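Annual report, structural modelling task.

Input specification for the 6-O-phosphono-alpha-D-glucopyranose complex:
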Amino acid sequence: MCGIVGYVGSRQAAPIMLDGLKRLEYRGYDSAGIVVCSGEGLTLCKTKGYVDHLSDMVCNGDALRGTVGLGHTRWATHGRPSDENAHPHLSDGGKIAVVHNGIIENYAQLREMLVAKGVTFRSETDTEVAVNLISYFYKGDLLKAVAEAALRLEGSYALGILCEDCPDMIVAVRKESPLILGIGRGENFLASDVTALIPHTRDVIYMEDGEIATLTKDEVRVYSRDLVEIKKETARVEWDISAAEKGGYEHFMFKEIMEQPEAIRKTVSPRLRGGRVQIEGLDFTPEYLKSLKKIYLVGCGSAYHVGVVAKYNMEKMLRIPVETALASEFRYSSPLVDERTLVICISQSGETADTIAAMREAKRLGAKVLSIVNVMGSTIANESDYCVYTWAGPEIAVATTKAYSTQLAVTYLLTLYFAELLGVIPDDEYKKLVEALSELPEKVDEILKNKEHIQYLASLYFNKDNIFFIGRNIDYALTLEASLKLKEISYIHSDAYAAGELKHGTISLIEDGTLVIAMASYVRLLEKTISNIVEVRSRGAEILTLTTKSAEAQVSRVSDHVIAIPDAEEMVLPSLAVVPMQLFAYYVALSRGCSIDKPRNLAKSVTVE
Ligand code: G6P
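The model returned the following structure:
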């Protein structure tokens, strides 16, 4: 949610920042801007629209000369997308420039105070309050002024700050919004995400809440809130630049769909040793697990949907009550959580504001928190008691695919790990499931090889206005994700329904030609789902059914079209069933000419409530 880049060195800053902003555009893309500092002061260019538009305006950066700069790509919170509201923002008088990710919650009081002191505001943003507050405290020492201002800013912020009086330095500060420092040779960088740093350096410092940093071309220093210098460790980013580029694919989403077999393999195989699940960093005891009254699975969007699948699998196998909760609801619902609750927070970015808040609330109530996170060094990874990383690599497309799949894979690993510790799984069953897990990449690959069939189906249905998804049990959990994927990128309205629930109201929406996608991979309830298919079919619905190869013939009799996935153990079926639905959403959006990687109004990392 909003991307920040900063550069200080000897090269021209603008082209470097434009490239960084392109890489961060998935975080928000309604406006963009850059500011550079040369000996002659600050020069700024900002505009509504994509980074490409900004790039054209500044001749790919050639029109802005200077070797120190900040850039920003925005997802609007305070103030509509417009040239004025785009970042960077200048202080009244133009001496200081700021880019910001987050929300200043007490901006109204601060603005009133600053207006009373004669400050003029030009935009509708909360950010302009931050820059003017820094300017208010500025008496020749920018670091001090930022520290003073940070003490008074409430809410969340990652700020990059430039001042024309110190043209060789960037100051940065963070609270509850990510900010990473990139360490180069004779140059240093700042970004919201490592994807913008990786073309230049793999050595990074993850800033933590309350920390303030100064960057010059020769050194990076980090300070605590009260300006005591802190010695920070430099981390090395392991993946290389190709992981964050399209590599010949038309869209990141498609590339990421195709990367799923490898991503699942990387996530699963290091944790299957000698036929047993072993997860680094987890030291749960049978006594602790037996003491649990409840497991909570918490997340937002697709990460929440992973939790819904995991609930079915965990509860069935562990016989412990498992609840799922949307992080935004959990935090304000006075959840019944204590030291006998294990809370599993699921998040690709590790920076989703609501999931962070849910995690903190769970810890405050005494629960242990285990997180499933993709981005190393992120807030949730750092603050949870245990973190199991997904090894999906960078995910750039706003609509998640490989992160979802690897999160699912981690939930299977956890289910087996807990089941063994609790002694609730017979050995032969355990072995069968371990094998099923290790076969997953191959089976996903097999589905991907048949993608043309899904493309054909998408060509039949891309013009629909409404699509209904139905399913039972884990298939119901999958309909939530399938429906979300479709609406996110194709803008077709769709609804996900438990198949047995449709007749309690929604069936009134079914008429001649309505498309119903039935997910029927959970063969144990196949007969029941077939009855529900027949109910809607007899009311005119067209039926596309997803099932396993062994059930294909049976469902063909009641369906217009069938997608058959390889047979597999029940627990891991969702990992197979979701793939055709990702492809379906992708091809439908492609046929409709939608902006697939950057769907309207969305952002990948939602760092505000
Ligand atoms: C956004 C994304 C979703 C994602 C959700 C949670 O809404 O568009 O794809 O599932 O945030 O993000 P997280 O990073 O916490 O998994």
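The chain has a mean pLDDT of 94.
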